[in-house]
Amino acid sequence: MRLKPSVVLRLYSLCGILIQVAATKSKTKGSQGQFPLTQNVTVIEGETATLTCRVDQNDNTSLQWSNPAQQTLYFDDKKALRDNRIELLRASWHELTIRVTDVSLSDEGQYTCSLFTMPVKTSKAFLTVLGVPESPQITGFVSPVMEGDRMELTCKTSGSKPAADIRWFKNDKEVKDVKYLKEEDANRKTFTVSSTMNFKADRSDDGAVVSCRVDHESLHSSPQIAMQVLEIHYIPSVKIIPSTLWPEEGQSITLICESKGKPLPDPVLWTKDGGELPDPERMIVNGRELNIHMLNKTDNGTYRCEAENSIGLNSAEYVLIIRDPNGYPGPTGTDHAVIGGIVAVVVFVTLCSIILLGRYLARHKGTYLTNEAKGAEDAPDADTAIINAEGSQVNAEEKKEYFI
């Protein structure tokens, strides 16, 4: 059987279509596993970012990196954008890796890796750029500060992204009662952060170290710290400390005037009973110490120590009592005096009790009638005894018995 030429032509066309469909199906089947793989990247401003795109199965299909503005950076191993900071690290059918040095905040955004199959397949990688906070500074401190004044210290840092965290410490102890303020910088990308600590100056704060600590993820757990040493001026505090608590005649005693103040009060002034020291030869002042030699009863009295600085004056008093060495010393003499007092009180109470008892008995001395006088002894019953007793009152005078 002989086919017509038109039929043969149709058969050839049909075979071509079948072959083309088979080829397309084969190519589509081979490209089903071709998916680009990328990862998000976080980098600190000024450092280097590496962007990698990988394909596990690739039948010689091209790879391309483009920036957030959809500008092509690299097409396979060919550089498309003139930027000296962008370099090619690796280019193959399975990987396209580029590097961006000296990253700036403007480089942040979504980067795209494209695999030019039919259709084109893409994968996104977001580049996050961290803004490093500037070194913090403490403002508001004016030296010196007077005790009782209010202090307001402010710590400030700029350029952080995201906003940095500020913490206050006083001698390594964290201060919680502070105010925090966050403001966006002019570039609308970074932040200026400030924190204020407000407190009342106290003498215990003199010499204290106040520190402002800035924490941020870009600092790699090494916070930035600003420090300020406080200087507080205050009126002196005064206390007198004796060298012995029980001074005796003939001994010596030293009275130490302990004074603390800022500025340091120096020298101190010693007085006795509101006047000058009466015996300068035995009463010698040495700095803050008053030494009294060969004590006697005339040294008894109130000694006063005064300390003054530019803030004010303060004083303390000490009552000196000289004890007789032949008497009961110190606490033992006190114990005997207490015991003697107790004995005297007991004797006094006993005498008073005896006197009161005697007066009571004397006031109740009286008479009573015996049964015989009352006529109750021979009575047959109680009623008869009562009648006989009433009738016998006339003769009762002869039968009285006295009780003393």
What are its keywords?
single chain; 404 residues; alpha+beta; 6-stranded mixed β-sheet; 5-stranded mixed β-sheet; 28 strands; 19% helix
What does this structure look like?
By secondary structure, the protein is an alpha+beta fold. The chain has four helices and 28 strands. The chain has a six-stranded mixed beta sheet, with no helix packed on it. It has a five-stranded mixed beta sheet with strand order 12-20-21-24-23, with no helix packed on it. It has a four-stranded antiparallel beta sheet with strand order 1-3-8-7, with no helix packed on it. A hairpin with a 2-residue loop joins strand 14 and strand 15. The protein is elongated. 17% of the residues are buried. The N terminus and C terminus are likely disordered.
Strands across the major sheet, in which order?
2-10-9-4-5-6
Largest sheet: 6 strands, mixed
What integer is the average pLDDT? 83
What's the total helix number? 4
Q: Give the strand content.
A: 35-45%
Low-confidence stretches: 1-31, 329-334, 366-376, 392-404
Outline:
With 404 residues, the protein is of the alpha+beta class. It has helices spanning 5-31, 330-363, 371-374, 382-391; strands at residues 36-37, 41-44, 49-55, 63-66, 72-75, 78-79, 86-91, 95-100, 109-115, 121-130, 137-139, 145-146, 150-160, 165-170, 173-175, 178-184, 191-200, 209-215, 224-229, 232-242, 253-262, 269-272, 283-286, 289-292, 301-308, 313-320, 366-369, 400-403.
